[in-house]
Amino acid sequence: MFESLGEKLQNAFKRLTGKGKLTEADVSEAMREVRMALLEADVNFKVVKEFVSKVKDRAVGEEVMATLNPGQMVIKIVHEELTALMGGANAALNIAERPPTIIMMCGLQGAGKTTHAAKLALKLRKEGRKPLLVAADIYRPAAITQLEVMGEKAGVPVFSMGDKVSPVEIARGGFAYAAEQHRDVIIVDTAGRLHIDEALMAELQQIKEILKPHETLLVVDAMTGQDAVTVAEHFDGQLGIDGVILTKLDGDTRGGAALSVRQVTGKPIKFVGVGEKVEALEAFHPERMASRILGMGDVLTLIERAQEQIDEKQAEQMTRKMLKAEFNFEDFLEQMRTMKKMGPLQDILKMLPGMGNQLKDINIDEKEMAHVEAIILSMTPKERRHPDLINHRRKERLARGSGRPIAEVHRLMKQFEQSRKMMKQLGGMEKLMKKGKGKGGFPKLPFGGGGFPGGGLFGRK
Question: Which CATH number covers residue 39?
C-alpha cells in the first residue's frame, strides 16, 4: 500500500533533512519530485497542483526557513497537508438515535461490495451491535449464496427472499424481519453493474427512497485509480452517498484514489479493505495514512489490532513469565498464532516507525513461521514447557518429526535462549527501577522476548 509513492516522497525529503539551511530553490526542487510522485501514483492532476502549491507556500515562509531543522519542518507541513487532503479526521458511521440504523451498500460489480457488507457487519458485531445482512442483489449469479457464506463467517444472520422477488420488496421484507428479531443495524447489499446505467440508478434510488438509510456507502476498488474517483462522482451526483469504502488497499495499487476521492467528491473515506479475510476492514484515519506514506509508521493501528487479538489478563501473565525467564515454547507458539491473526508479518512491522526503509531489502517469508510452528509441534508437551530438556538427541528427533534441517532446529533453540536471557535482564532492570523510583516499570509486552516470534528466520533478498 503506497509503497512506491512513500519511497519516492521519502527520497525527495532526504536531501532536505541533510541541509542546515534551506533556500527557495531547494524547496522548489523537492516539490517537483513530490509532484511527479503524486501524478505517477494516479492522484488527480488538480488535486496535485493545489496540494503542491499549499505545501510550497507554507515551506518557503520565514517560520520554516529560520528554524534549526527546516527539512523536518517541511516534512511536518507535508504530513499536515496530506492529512487535510484525505479529510483531516476519521469520519465515523452515522448511527441512528433510535434503532435500527440502516446502511445501504452500493457500487459496481467486482469492487467487493458483498464481501465488505459482511466485513462491516462483523466489525459492528464486535462493537456490541446486532447487525442483519439483507441480500438484495438478485442479478449477479450466486450473489445471495456468497452473502450467506460470508455472513456465516462473520457470525451475522442473512435475510433473503431469493432472486425472483424485486430488490425493493426484499428491502421492505428485511426491515420488517429486523424489527421482529430486534436487530439494531440493517446492512443492505444492493445490485451492481459492470458500468453505471439508468436502470441501476433508478433501482437504487427507489430502495433509498423506501429505506431512507442513515448511511449510503459506496464501495470502490482502489486498484482502479482515477476510475474509482470518477465512479464516486457519478454515484454521488445521481444517488447521493455519505461515504466511501475503499477496497484492495493491500494490493498493488498506486493509491491515487485514497488521495483524491475526498478532495474531488467532498465525501469521506470511512473504511478501507486491507485483505481477503472477513476481519480485514479498518476505519480510515487520514493522519495515520499520511504517517504510513511518509514512513513514520502507524503504531495506533498496530495497537488496535493487537487489542482485538490479545486478552489483557493473558498479556499481563505473559509479561510476568517473560520477565522471570519462565517463558516457554507453549507461550511462544501462542504468541506466534496471535501474530498471524493480526495480518502479514511484513505489514505489521511496517507500522513501526522507521521500519519501512529497513525492510526494503529483507524478504519475510511467512512459510518460515510455519516451519517454526512445525518444530514446536514436534516437541512433547513436557519439552515445550521445559525447553532445557532438549538436548542434541532430542533436536535430531525434532528435525525428523518436523521435516526441517537440524541446523534450523539449532537456530530456533539459540534464538529462543537469547530471547529468554534478554527478558531476564529486562526483569532485573525493572526491579532496579522500582527500587530507585518506587514506581514505574515496564509496560505490558504483548509480543514477547526477541522482538517478534520467528525473528531472524528470514533472510535478505
Answer: 1.20.120.140
Residue 90 placed within a domain:
no
Q: What CATH number should be reported for the domain holding residue 331?
A: 1.10.260.30
Please tell me whether residues 236 and 115 are part of one structural domain.
Answer: yes
Max mean pLDDT range (9-13, 50-54, 427-431): 50-54
pLDDT at position 364 over 80: no
Q: Tell whether the torsion through CA atoms of 452, 317, 430 and 414 is positive or negative.
A: negative
Same domain assignment for residues 308 and 292: no
Query: How many other β-carbons are positioned within 10 Å of the β-carbon of residue 286?
Result: 22
Compute the distance between CA of residue 456 and CA of residue 451 in angstroms, rounded to an integer.
10
In angstroms, rounded to a whole number, what is the distance separating the alpha carbons of residues 111 and 257?
13
Which range of residues forms the domain containing residue 263? Answer: 101-296
Over residues 43-57, the pLDDT tens digits come to 888 889 999 999 888
- Give yes or no: residues 328 and 210 share one domain: no
Is residue 91 included in any domain, yes or no? Answer: no
C-alpha cell at 85: 487532503
Show the cell assigned to 192: 451492481
Look at the chain and report how many structural domains it folds into.
Answer: 3
451 falls in which pLDDT band (50, 70, 90)?
A: very low
**pTM metric for this prediction:** 0.68
Interstrand relation of 101-106 and 158-159 (parallel, antiparallel or unpaired):
unpaired
Residues 307 and 267 in one domain: no
CA distance 33 to 35: 5
Contact 226, 44 (CB under 8 A): yes
Task: Report residue 161 as a C-alpha cell.
Answer: 427472499
Q: Is the pLDDT of residue 414 over 60?
A: yes
| CB contact set of 194 (below 8 Å; sequence gap of 6+) | 108, 109, 110
- Indicate the Cα dihedral angle 454, 455, 458, 461, nearest 10°: 150
* Interatomic CA distance for residues 28 and 34, integer angstroms: 10
CA gap 379, 178 in Å, rounded: 50
- Which residue in 52, 293, 7, 261 sits closest to 270, CA to CA? 261
Non-local (6+) Cβ contacts of 138 within 8 A are 144, 162, 163, 164, 165, 166, 167, 170, 191
d(CA 12, CA 73): 14
Instruction: Please check whether residue 264 is in contact with residue 232, taking contact to mean a CB–CB distance below 8 angstroms.
Output: yes
Helix boundaries (H) for 161-239: 167-180, 198-211, 226-238
CATH at residue 109: 3.40.50.300
